[in-house]
Amino acid sequence: MDANYSLLSIEIATTLLAIGVIVIGLLVPKEQKYGLGYLVTIGLTGILLLSFSFYGVNTKLFDGMYIIDDFSTFFKQLFLIAAILVSMAATLYVKKIGTNYGEFFVMMVFATVGMMLLSSSGDFITLYLALETMTISFYILTGYKKNDSKSAEAGVKYLILGAMSSAILLYGLSLVYGMTGTTVIVEVAAKIKVLGSMSPALLVGMIFLIAGFGFKISAVPFQMWSPDVYEGAPTPVTAFLAVGSKAAAFAVLIRVFFVAFPAFQSQWRLLFAALAALTIIIGNLVAIPQTNIKRMLAYSSIAQAGYIMTGIVAASVAGVKGVAFYAMLYVFATIGAFTVVMNFSANTGSDEIKDYAGLAQRSPLLASVLTVCLLSMAGIPPLAGFAGKFYLFSAIVNQGYLWLVIIGLLMSMASVYYYLSVAKVMYMADPVDNTPLVVPAGAKATLLVTMVITVFLGIWPEPLSVLANMAAAALFK
Amino acid sequence: MGFPVLTVILLAPIIGALISVFIPKENSKVIKAVAGITTFTSLALTIVIYFIYYNQNLATGGFAFTEDIPWVRDLGVVYSLGVDGFSLPMLLLTNIIGFTSVFSRSWSVEKRAKEFYILLLILIGGVMGTFVARDLFIFFLFYEVVVIPIYIMVIIWGSGSKTKAVTKEYAGMKLTIYLLIGSAFLLAAMIWMYMQAAVYLGAPTFDIATLAKVDFPAKFQIIAFGMMAFGFTTLLSMFPFHSWSPDGYAGAPTAVSMIHAGVLKKIGGYGLIRIGLFILPLGAKAWAPVIAILAVGNVVYAALICLAQKDMKYVVGYSSVSHMGFVLIGVASLNIIGLNGAVANMFAHGVMSALFFSMVGYIYAATKSRYIPDLGGLAHQMPVASTGFVVAAMASAGLPGLVSFVPEFTTFVGAFATKQTNMQVLSIIALTGVVLGAVYVLRMVANVLFGPRKEEWDHVEDIKGSYLIPVVVLIVFIVTFGIFPSLLMDMVNSGMQPIAAKMVQATTAAAAAAQIGGNI
């Protein structure tokens, strides 16, 4: 079969960008390497613009091993946006790390390629390879600050636990393959239909898959790694890990369960409902006593994963639409918040919440972006998080999951407590040290973009919801 | 569609806030002037449309000055505004208090004045939005917008209490958490109702009038109304969910106390009637006895606590909890007279408590004390402030000729008109609250204003300059609506007609259905 390689132009272009940056990085002298970050930003922006032409293309390549549809295009755009925002914001921070400036961005782009392949994979082999491409890039990025013991510890921790979760996932995939005799996701569903009943091995396989993906999206009870890794990793990496890796795992999780296991829907829906409730409750409650802002954001991002999971419980177009919508706005809110954190710590060297005292007077921009992003995560209108939660919860409320909606809403109100505690420190107290903070232009751009889009999507969610709806509908074709 | 007057009213303060962002923070006088001008624009336009509606639309009722722009198509959200006899008094109230609160005095506001006025203007815009929205989604959007500015304003410009171990951080957070937990249930019920209605109607909609046409099953109505009522009555500070309110008012700066006690908690009553009673009448019928009993708890319990307070702001705070009991009794009687009384009471209590908080805030700012035993004889030094204080106190006690007499009277007539013994007994108990109310306000007036002159307060300045605006404007409204109650009552009556009619129709239909079931 002749494949139309132009369909892969996004992936090819991104890979070429990564290789190009390596080559250019070797050629230019050290003091000029700081341009590489901007090169990556510009290159990715071009690819993002290109990707808009892919809406409406729904096809399969290589005998179903690779799927290009609106669902994957939507998520590819999400990864590109995340990578663009992070690469813009990270310039000052990465410069402070000192060594190997260009390689940082190269690894970021490779991780993006992995995520893209993951969202398009139609076969367990593609899936696993893509997952490893992404994860191995992140292992390197997490331990990027070689001389910082926390960063090294986070790298090792992520490597060991990540490898274990990959093993579990692989075992699950092999069990499913063993029972059905195929690795193509669509054919798995057909084979299960023929089998008629759920064999124990298949059940174990499915649970292993949930555990493997649950690790990536840091769902309770597989969340233990994330606060330590988030705290130790360089902050731009944390931001990218929190949004990109999580969204990619959601994309592939949805594809596998919706396409391969519709026969066991009633079982896995219940399981995901329980996991979602646990994740929401534990994420939010443990976030309350945190004193380090990165750990607080780590727990809050666990809770956010719980909200997104409620869309999977719905198992409908509306639910997937909610997931896609929420994942996208979560990108803006999370990267906005982490950009504030990385610029604050690049200036002051601290990640403690108490050191944010008087930030509103030292840098009104940082304080207002952080407030807007946190309140969006809490779901306070008129910010995007409210619209996102509305899409998610309206998808499940009529299906007998009113209890989950109430838990979700109550916990998001509880989350206001710890988000507002940060706001309180920033706005109420007077600063101890009055030196104004230096925020480079790239980071300023990221901050403004995240804030404006978070407010804009809250007031008028329609543009994004149309795209999210297309993405969701493509999955059910 | 003609001139979008409601959008202009709504946007004026928001535009004021945007302008203020670009004024350097040293020019706090300019910022205050901008806030004053924009809120005055809203107030003036509201008065104009109030009288246009009063003269032209009163007989026919229904919404006027409507605007409809499709907003989020896939959810069925429409940016639809409009006012009727129910929302107009509330809108007027918001604008009266919004305008006067800009000129109220709070000693802490001189620090970081720019941020204060920006937040205040956003708050005023948000409150207005809830009263003019005809779309449930838009309503809820504005409903939650108001919580966060209040929190920030309390923790920056608020004050702790001398008599209780309450800090401003505690008061602000308590208020926020209470309201947000209430709104979580409210939002859950709203999403549920929206999805249920989509099943009956075939297409999703948030239009309140369309939702009211759906006959939801009785069981659904009872659960959904319960959840909504929890949210709304928490905001209305119904006993036993009231404890955020006195702490919050005491902690808040004057302008926020005025807006919060004056209009913001009225959103609870507004939502309870407009959404609860109108869309879910059977649920309201099932819960009315519970609400009535808790309402009496409000009136009597809060009034008794008032007697023991030594902090002026707490007295006014608890008295506002007590007054909300009257509103709830009116709502629980579920007939047109009671509803008229409830809504009119919300308006009356709004202007009255705004004046009260304004005066208490002024005295506190001037003397740096709000502890009643420290004060005394202030009528000697502050005759103008004392006048305002006494008028507010008299209105609070329900003196005829002032704004709150007719509403309170109507409420009790409504409760008796139910012809149910329990409502009648409960309202007799609640009447003791009126007596207690007179006791605690008069006692406060006597101890703060009258008595021998204290020399330590001789340096204190009386109200003058722009600080006069709240006293004058609020007294004008209190007296006008007291002498011409029909200005208010006719308006409210026209707004309550469709809601009361829906109530009657739903309950008779349910009774008829039960009859048929019984015969078979």
Q: What would the average pLDDT of chain B be, to the nearest integer? A: 88
Shape verdict of chain A: globular
Q: Estimate the helix proportion of chain A, in percent.
A: over 70%
Low-confidence stretches of chain B: none
N- to C-terminal distance of chain B:
53 Å
Strand order of the largest sheet of chain B: 1-2
**In terms of structural class, how would the helical and strand content of chain A be classed?**
mainly alpha
Features:
heterodimer, A: 477 residues, mainly alpha, two-stranded antiparallel sheet, 20 helices, 2 strands, B: 520 residues, 21 helices, 3% strand
What this model shows, in words?
The complex is a heterodimer of chains A (477) and B (520). Chain A is mostly helical and 477 residues long. In chain A, 60% of the residues are buried. The mean pLDDT of chain A is 89. The longest helix of chain A has 32 residues, at 149-180. Chain A has a domain at 264-477. Chain A has helices spanning 9-27, 35-51, 70-89, 91-97, 101-120, 124-142, 149-180, 185-195, 200-216, 225-232, 235-260, 265-287, 293-314, 317-348, 359-362, 364-378, 384-396, 402-428, 441-459, 462-475; strands at residues 59-61, 66-68. In chain A, strands 1-2 form a two-stranded antiparallel ribbon. In chain A, helix 3 (70-89) packs antiparallel against helix 11. Chain A is built from 20 helices and two strands. Chain B is mainly alpha-helical. Chain B is 74% helix and 3% strand. Chain B has 21 helices and two strands. Chain B has helices spanning 5-21, 28-56, 87-102, 113-132, 136-145, 147-157, 168-201, 208-213, 218-235, 244-251, 254-264, 266-279, 281-307, 312-333, 336-367, 378-381, 383-396, 405-417, 421-449, 468-483, 485-519; strands spanning 64-72, 77-83. In chain B, a hairpin with a 4-residue loop joins strand 1 (64-72) and strand 2 (77-83). In chain B, helix 3 runs antiparallel to helix 4 (113-132), helix 3 runs parallel beside helix 15 and helix 6 packs antiparallel against helix 7. The longest helix of chain B has 35 residues, at 485-519. Chain B is globular. Chain A binds chain B through residues 375, 380-382, 386-387, 390, 393-394, 397-398, 402, 405-406, 409-410, 412-414, 416-417, 420, 423-424, 427-428, 460-462, 465-466, 469, and chain B through 71-75, 140-141, 144-145, 147-148, 151-152, 155-156, 169, 173, 176-177, 180-181, 183-185, 187-188, 191-192, 194-196, 199.
